[in-house]
Write a structure and sequence with these properties.
523 residues; mainly alpha; two-stranded antiparallel sheet
Amino acid sequence: MTQVDTRPPSGGQDRDALAEGVPGDGGVRGKGLSGNSLGLLGSATIGVSTVAPVYCLTATLGPTVSEVGLQMPAIFLAGFLPMLLVAFAYRELHKAVPDCGTSFTWSVKAFGPRVGWMCGWGLLVATVVVLSNLAGVATSFFWLLAGEVTGNDSIAALDGNKAVHILTTLVFVAIATAVSYRGITATKWVQYALVGLQLAVLIVFVVMAIGKADQVAGSLDFSWSWMNPFAVESFAAFTAGLSLSIFIYWGWDTCLSVNEESVGSAKTPGRAALLAIVVIVASYLLVAIASQMYAGIGDKGTGLGNPDTADNVFAVLAEPVMGGGLGVLLFVAVLASAAASLQTTFIPVARTALAMGTYQAFPASFAEVHPRFKTPGRATVAAGIATGVFYTVMTLLSENVLLDTIYALGLMICFYYAITAFACVWFFRGELRRSGRELLVKGILPGLGGVMLAAVFVQTMYDMWDPAYGSGSSVFGIGSVFVIGVGLLLLGVVLMVAMQRRSPAFFRGEVLTQETPALTVED
């Protein structure tokens, strides 16, 4: 019995051939990016950086406790489960179709150009929302840190000046855009320092918070019941907490967005994603438990349930937990986390836009790669401009923009991750009967992850209609979180219709074709 794999080897295609498209590849093309620039450690570091563990924790510890109370650690674990299941989809699809367009490219090949376009749009708009929040958090902690270092409260208060806040945010966006524009190698070395700083400060915070847990009012003794997701009071609370939990894991797939720039692109991106996820899960669980033990879940003072501090928990816990001297390090870590992620988060949005431009789903200008830096220059600059405009408009419209966009972000993440998971099942449908392993890793696990995310998506849409969801603000009686989340997805439909008139070939399936991978045949 002889087995012949008729597929082109994953990650090993000749770049010149890829640039033109090769027979049987379904239109997949190279983009001209800088190859062999990232190893395992560099890719994993970029994955951790994009997730921004310190930023995510300071922004979501409070909202998550307000939804699920003591079950916060359990919800963090529950949010990890669909991410793990979707990771199987990413791994298998990457092996078959290594392309920096990731979710966009794969969903086009599974479900056709329209579903694929909307999946790509979901990724793009989610990333712009994340970028705007990252820039806003970086700005807040910049002024807080400046106030701490100078001992001048008036300097820290500058963050409350809307004009100063917006201007500083735009400066951060411009700097991050410039660094990303200069190439993946520059990105890598900046990230080593910033991610290392974040993880070191988190370890110190965990140790000191647990050590002082019995010295403050409202502190709690650890209980294994905190790890029980079934103890959440209602399904609505569970899905709201899960939506936030899914948000804090978003970004690990950046490891796969740089697959065309990785050393050993067939295996390195997948291994890097796994390493990044392990580091992130461990960090989240330790910090959640330590914070809950120290501060409790009360709605006053340093309690994690205090609505006045929900959007920035570490700003309140820094000095009580770590003292006046070391507490500054937590401010530095949040600033470093937001700034580092701000820079690396340009990677998936720029490379997805690059792929969409290459395959004629976006204007051709997005397919341009800088001749010297080998980066998607036009796409990177466009992402920076979109981020600045979005944050400025939302800040001027709503005082609760940070909290509401975080809630809305979970909806968009569930949208494109679920499509990607289902795309894996459908793309490999012809291979699922070949073996138990094929059925499990290409069918059952991704499919289950997709169902879980789709369920969260539907329940979240229902809950978001209520103005009480998120910050409690509304637009014409409709919850502002619903308006932000659904409105941005509907904007994608409008733009897709416009692009369909401009680029009919892509939408006819003539550029990036629908085809399953060639099967292994037996004779």
